[in-house]
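Researcher: Please predict.
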Amino acid sequence: IMKILNSKTKNFDRNLDYLLFKRRKSIKSDKVSVSNIINDVKKNGDTALIKYEKKFNRNSTIIPSAKKITKLIKSLNPKVKKAIDTAYNRIYKFHSLQKFKNISYIDKFKNKLEYRYLPLESVAIYVPGSLVSYPSSVLMNAIPATVAGVKRIVMINPGFKGNQNPAVLYAARKCKIKEIYSIGGPSAIAAACYGTKKIKKVDKIVGPGNAYVATAKKKLFGLVGIDMIAGPSEILIIADKKNNPEHIAIDLLSQAEHDKLAQSILITDDESFAKKVIQNIETFLKKIDRKDIASASWNNYGVVIISKNIQSSISLANQIAPEHLELAIDNSTKYLNKIKNAGAVFLGKYTPEAIGDYVAGPNHVLPTDRTAKFSSGLNVLDFFKRTSIVSCNSKNLKKIGKDAIILANQEGLQAHALSIECRMKN
């Protein structure tokens, strides 16, 4: 039975924290087995990689042939191709508008100072596969890398029984990805990090995955760059009684159907409306294909919160810092400036979160598990490294060197001080 929390009750904060941390404690994987897989791939390369593919995906071919890729793409429904084309164009347009600017200026002492953006040389995008397909994940991960100017983009996408999903392959072709590997799980992350005879290592790995993939990325961070440690999906909806309860119910389930550990939260100031939403959720759960997953998510981690008013709902949203936040309220733009912590915001009664997953334009790879308090969704800047450049001459060094020498000596770093001082004497 779904639990309704009232923000006015004495133990509300404790109960909410329990619900949020209960899910966090459940998001785990067998770290020992992940470490063993990583070490096996590091030591045995392709042999280990194929072993795990056979075990988990019944797949023995890690590099699909161009002929097979073309054949699979040809089998794809033209309507799906058109939808991918539309999504590609909108996502590309949005990301191409993300501005970055090199900095170059000369200070008052004539020293030249610069800051340059340089695209990464190689990136692997991890696209979940096997029994599911996410062409949208290909677009969301590859397009910002393309806009940034990354030369080598590799797609890691597990197949099943030797086949990958045609929609995923078409999206990869649309993004002009030439390197495609039919591998998945921690072994795929290890292969991209260390490299094997068949797979050249990359500089950064991005993209969503299950708890095992996330653990592998976390363990290998430092040897290879990563985007974030993304957990199961989340949605928080602030809705007033003027909404259609069916709309809000299915929006909540749109994230619950992703994963048994996904979390869906509704905040409303009307208890009667809240009960109508819950009734509609129960109805929808009998109809949707992924009812088992969505039911587990909703029953274990879903919650409806009754708040005092819309303003207090905003405060709660900032406290929870959700991945996705829907403001299904009148004058939603009025409250936007009050939102401080959210991966993505969807304004108004006719902007469901699901539109952002596919064709809106902004990226759907977003911070989860309350990390929206300090991090952002995937963007073009994630595929750049920034380098600072300093240029002094003998005359200008003297203008700023004296203070540097004082600070170096203060820190007990004599060689630092002398490296500046010897040049100033000359």
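Model: The CA atoms of residues 247 and 366 lie 23 Å apart.
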